[in-house]
Fold this protein.
Amino acid sequence: MATDPSFYLQNNLNPSYDADIIEKTRTTLGAAIAFSVDEIEKHLDSPDEPTIPRIYSSQVGEAVGLLRLYAQAGRLGLPDVLKDRLPALIKKFIGPCFTDKNPEFFEASSKNPDVRRKVLNFGKCGMMTSLPGPAFLEISRQLLIPETADDDDDMYEIALGVLQNGFAACFEASNEQDLQGDMVELMWSTAGFLYGVIGMRAMLDGMQTTDPGKIAKAKDSRLLDIVSNESIGRLVTEIIHTGVHGSGRFREQFGHAPPVMWRDFRRSYALGGIHGVAGVLLILLQVPNAIIYPYLNGHILPTLDWLLAQQRNGNMPRTYPTNAPQAGGPAWQCQFCHGAIGPALMLTAYKHLLPFPTEGYTPRSIVAKRLNRDKCLEDCLDFIWKEGLLRKGISVCHGITGNAVPFLIQAAYDLKEGKTESLSLGRALALLRYASGLPPINMPQSEQSLTLPDGQPIFGPLEHPTYLFQGIAGAMCVWADALVLLNNQLEGAENVTTGIVGFPLAGGLGIRLPL
């Protein structure tokens, strides 16, 4: 189903590319990244609310983009003059969360459960919109960046306390929430916390440092307990357990059900990326295979196939049923929150992490399901290409750079498989070059007009121009991933996906950092 034509532009971009276009794109991406850092730094001292500790809806989220940039600096070929600015800038965004301006953060780390539950509880424990988000960021900062400060140990203890309590909150659903399959979604709750845990585990497993202080924190038994296989397994089991109950309620209402089903914060059966089934499955598919395997064939993949059966012409409805009241907006959209983007990321994760068997006999039914999933991904990508030039602008959550991510991850798969040409790569780069001309970047671009026939600009100023999900901090994440992929290809890297992080706080080719 098509989205409202007033939401998007007709896509006249050219996805073809050659060596010259690739080189010019690398230059454009590098310039867009540098400009983004300048713009983020310029807005730091604005009369905004930099101390509100919510990654999705405040300035602290910009630290995600900056931390990712620091972690990718080598793969990006980031100039030292730019890289050296990042540590202090990151600290300025995260630090205010740990001051007395934020009593919530101290309450969230309290050992008194009654105090903690006022601000950190089931349904409010995910990375994007809850207090564990900045806690994951602070511990990531201390493990990634060489510089130390006098208050680091205190901030670490507070952050660790928040994560310990966040883990506990994931298991505190009320009986009603548990029986209805409520509130495990990526944006608000358990699936979002699980993303942070897996990302932290991956970062710890890959750490290389001789710094005694960082080694001590990386080996802290309290942190290791949160990211252990046992803890990850408990989170996965809780999500599946709740989903089985939700499936039962769904069956009572509709007469049929997938093996697992969850309701979102509006108590509707959302299907998309940030609130719905696609987002939860996306995170589960990126759990280490040894942990997720017991649930893969009985719960996860059959639910994935049920979800794909709801797809129409490559797009995904906002909720089931499609004629349900759409409290959050139109039933059909083309953005990460709802629509084709979430299922596309779910399917790219499936392709990257569950490769098709190349040896031995594969039953015909398994082959047919695999082919259908591949076809559904192709349909998603074609739909996003058709309707993905969103008038909302540059952002990852409701805009063009977010819609480029499925193409970028599919391109990484193509190149990893040895393809010399990738339609998805051409599409991703065309979208990202076009996005570099949008406010507030406004770089020269010749991809497609940025004005209406009457000369008025198509894209107006953003309400939050530097935020992670609504502005250039998120766009910068996608530009950086694209540049890493191009650099890897140019340098003949053994694995072209090395250093790519994926959609902010969602991934798409494995969760590699809690960012």
User: Anything to note?
Assistant: The mean pLDDT is 92.
